[in-house]
TrEMBL record:
Residues 1-84, 252-286 are annotated as: Disordered. This is W2 domain-containing protein. SUPFAM superfamilies: ARM repeat. InterPro entries: ARM-type_fold (IPR016024), W2_domain (IPR003307). SMART domains: eIF5C. Residues 47-56 have a biased composition (Pro residues). Residues 275-286 have a biased composition (Polar residues). Residues 22-39 have a biased composition (Basic and acidic residues). It comes from Bambusicola thoracicus. Residues 100-259 form the W2 domain. Residues 62-76, 252-267 have a biased composition (Acidic residues). The lineage of its organism: Eukaryota, Metazoa, Chordata, Craniata, Vertebrata.
Length: 286
């Protein structure tokens, strides 16, 4: 199960306005049929070949009649080759079975995968493996939601920098993934309200500076609170606390577009947040 937060918010996953990428793919089911025995069968007087070792036999194996020809070669190399064939077949079965699961089940499979990488101490170098698993499960857009759950806590600002590469693999040029990152961000705030509620503008700035969020996505998120992942009341409060950053973002965007023809040197400071916002916790009236 996912990390516990208020009313287990992250255990329920919602699709983003009908976008593709989270629905099930229709997969053609292929029945493997046994081949007819050619040139007769093995004599009853012959000793059948030894079965593969039980400890590496997958849950679903090919029926015996599929593999009568395996008995012709009992060398160690042949047995190893047969085990590889069984392993490949098991992987294909697992892939097909996983894609038939619900979106929520597939997201939880990804969660367990990421959590295991963290527990094994290899999470820092597992960014490629994680995105590959998300793609295998056809839930890539939801990857940031899982990553925030496993990797972020009250130290989110430094963790954004530490795991930037992991999030970029999902969020680069993917607005849907960026929206799920914002959903995950809200869930982290819900878990650590006392430490993070006043730091919301700074956290958003960290994600923006790390190129994890685009202006359009942030401004769209700020317009309306959702109760999908946190309570509507908390969602509204988060957006109120985010107002200094949202205001700066709008002004910077307008100033940047208005000065497009000016010298580059004159625009150096356009994208920088005001110093009082970037260095001091922001306390706003709710």
């Amino acid at each position: 199960g996912l990390h516990e937060i208020e009313e287990a918010h992250t255990l329920t996953f919602f699709s983003e306005s009908g976008d593709t990428g989270t629905g099930k793919k229709e997969k053609e089911k292929k029945n493997r049929k046994g081949k007819d025995k050619e040139n007769g069968s093995v004599s009853s007087n012959e000793t059948p070949p030894p079965p593969p070792p039980e400890e590496i036999t997958p849950p679903q194996v090919v029926e015996e009649e599929d593999d009568d020809d395996w008995g012709e070669d009992t060398t160690e190399e042949a047995q190893r080759r047969r085990m590889d064939e069984i392993s490949d077949h098991a992987k294909n079965l697992t892939l097909s079975e996983d894609l038939e699961r619900t979106v929520e089940e597939r997201v939880n499979i990804l969660f367990d995968f990421v959590k295991k990488k963290k527990e094994e101490g290899v999470i820092d170098s597992s960014d490629k493996d994680i995105v590959a698993e998300a793609e295998r499960l056809d839930v890539k857009a939801m990857g940031p939601l899982v990553l925030t759950e496993v990797l972020f806590d009250e130290k989110i600002r430094e963790q954004i920098r530490k795991y930037r590469r992991h999030f970029l693999r999902f969020c680069h040029n993917n607005k849907k993934a960026q929206r799920y990152l914002l959903h995950g961000f809200e869930c982290v705030v819900a878990m650590h309200q006392s430490q993070l509620i006043s730091k919301i503008p700074h956290i958003l700035k960290e994600m923006y500076d790390a190129d994890l969020l685009e202006e359009e996505v942030i401004l769209g998120w700020a317009e309306k609170a959702s109760k999908k992942y946190v309570s509507k009341e908390l969602g509204k409060e988060i957006r109120v606390k985010a107002e200094p950053f949202i205001k700066w973002l709008k002004e910077a965007e307008e100033e940047s577009s208005g000065n497009e023809e000016e010298d580059e040197d004159e625009n150096i400071e356009v994208r920088h947040i005001p110093s009082n916002l970037s260095t001091e916790p922001c306390v706003l009236q709710s």
